[in-house]
UniProtKB/TrEMBL annotation:
It holds the Pfam family Amino_oxidase. It comes from Fontibacter flavus. Residues 14-410 form the Amine oxidase domain. It comes from the Bacteria. This is Protoporphyrinogen/coproporphyrinogen oxidase. InterPro entries: Amino_oxidase (IPR002937), FAD/NAD-bd_sf (IPR036188).
Amino acid sequence: MKQDQNIYIIGAGLSGLIAAYELEQAGFSPVILEASDGVGGRVRTDEFKGFLLDRGFQVLLTAYPEAQRYLDYEGLNLKKFNPGAVILKPGTAFSIHDPFRAPSKLLSMALSPVGSLKDKLKIFKLTQMLKSKRIEEIFEEESITTADFLRSFGFSDQIIENFFKPFFKGIFLENGLETSSRMFKFVFKMFSLGHAAVPEKGMQQIAEQLKGKLTKTQIRLNTPVKTIEGSQISLLSGDQIHADRIIIATRPDKLLPQLKGQFKPYRKVINLYFALSHSFIAQPMIALVPDDQFLINNLVFMTDVSKAYSQNGKALLSVSITKEVKDMDKLFSLVAIELEAITKIKAEHFEHIKTYVIDEALPQVEDLSYQLPATNTKVYDGVFLAGDYLLNGSINAAMTAGRKSAEAVILSIQPTY
Ligand SMILES: Cc1cc2nc3c(=O)[nH]c(=O)nc-3n(C[C@H](O)[C@H](O)[C@H](O)COP(=O)(O)OP(=O)(O)OC[C@H]3O[C@@H](n4cnc5c(N)ncnc54)[C@H](O)[C@@H]3O)c2cc1C
């Protein structure tokens, strides 16, 4: 029976879980080998001191085509962010409402100091332009840096510094807007077609929902793989496994020595959580700190988005830093001082809950793409790749790559599939 094949997937991130799901649909019963103690990979949530803490601030964009394909949004009880952002500067705060799609709001925005009226009209033009383009077209367009694209589109330095830079720094996790204009346009389009959202009980619910759909897959947690040679998997424990097919659903350079040195380092982010008696934003909105002197790039009260993030009545503030931090020992107190400067709330009122330093947050992909021919996932006979790094750093890409790798495995067993 072809369905008796021993298929192993390395990694229970979103990509590995989707690969398992697709293999199950074709009648296979794969085994996932996962190094950590849970599913989700980079999409994990911890319960800590009466709070739900996502390991790094991240959101699901509801317009992602792959997320729509695989996730039951109602089951996740998605909690949406208000579109736009609050801009925080010492002594002043203003909002940019729904820049991604609501032309009706342009008039009220015309009075906000985020940019000029011309900028606001340009935003409208950009939204319309991207709405009329298919995602595939966007990824076929010339790739320049996001910074160059924004300038060539005619946006002023004022709106770039106040809005685009801090907003997209928080998404791309780099400070110069060097990320490809293709990714900028894709993300902008996703924001204009849907919402940013989190599952009521934390981002990991996305992975838990996918895991819940698996009925024939065995998931072996705490099982790190050391190397792969031919069709042989060596576990860190010393055990050896023979596999008919292997999907490596994580970056493969540590497992396949022949691929060493082929990838750029990941982008990093630092995420600090604070508790406070109440939210000073008081709406489900991302707040940006555009001033380059500050370490803080963006912040959000998770409890304004979903009350379930706190079980103890306190408000939960998530702060993200994309800058290089030299002195980690002083980080918490520096951030508290910055929060005081922005909000006038005394630094001692910000109760530090936890800090996550995420060294491997987003892959730096040379040629950002959207589609992946199944055959491109094959490394050699029997061994296939999945993971976001094959396309672009996003939940959507991780899911696409998982689906495509499963397709390639199935085709290698049943060429008529
Ligand atoms: C802080 C942060 C913010 C983000 N923000 C967003 C966002 O807002 N929107 C968005 O779309 N995307 C965002 N992303 C990106 C998104 O989370 C990833 O693109 C996606 O989760 C990648 O999934 P993956 O399955 O490809 O990889 P991973 O999630 O990295 O999964 C790989 C799995 O393989 C396991 N593994 C690794 N090595 C081994 C081994 N040797 N043996 C066994 N198992 C192994 C790992 O433990 C892990 O579980 C963010 C990521 C981070 C970290």
